[in-house]
Write a structure and sequence with these properties.
143 residues; alpha+beta; four-stranded mixed β-sheet; disordered N terminus
Length: 143
């Protein structure tokens, strides 16, 4: 089942769930990886635009997948003016380990954002209540 999200300036994001391999259990309430991913995606699109967001997410996924093979099934692709994100259904189901996978992506995303924007965008992401509650990014003094 896919989720189509309309981003700014007419860009659309189609989030499609496909089932990769894996067996895990449930994370803390309100910390479902798919929801958090959509929050981060939307915030980055608002700040940087959809093409830049897609590029940064792709790079982060590629780097994180080197140490977390479960991330290899996730993809970001573009067809004309529509971006398609394929996320595992476990990310929506709330399986533990999926949050760890998203944290691995966030760890790779953070230095890319800091290099491009300084601390501004990472601080903004940290300030999102869901991101802060689920501790996707390390505290500012720990980075």
């Amino acid at each position: 089942m896919g989720l189509l999200v309309r981003a700014r300036k007419g860009w659309r994001v189609n989030v499609k769930n496909e089932r990769p391999q894996g067996t895990e259990t449930v994370p803390p309430p309100g910390c479902e990886a798919a929801v958090l991913f959509e929050v981060i995606w939307g915030s980055l699109v608002d700040l940087l635009g959809t093409p830049a967001t897609a590029t940064l997410i792709r790079r982060s996924l590629k780097l994180a997948a080197q140490n977390a093979p479960e991330l290899q099934g996730i993809s970001v692709s573009r067809e004309r003016f529509e971006y398609r994100l394929i996320l595992p259904p476990e990310w929506r189901d709330g399986t533990i380990g999926t949050l760890d996978g998203l944290r691995a992506v966030a760890r790779e995303l953070q230095p890319l954002l800091q290099e491009l924007t300084g601390p501004v965008v990472v601080r903004r992401l940290r300030g999102i209540p869901e991101v802060e509650r689920c501790r996707l990014f390390p505290p500012e003094d720990a980075s």
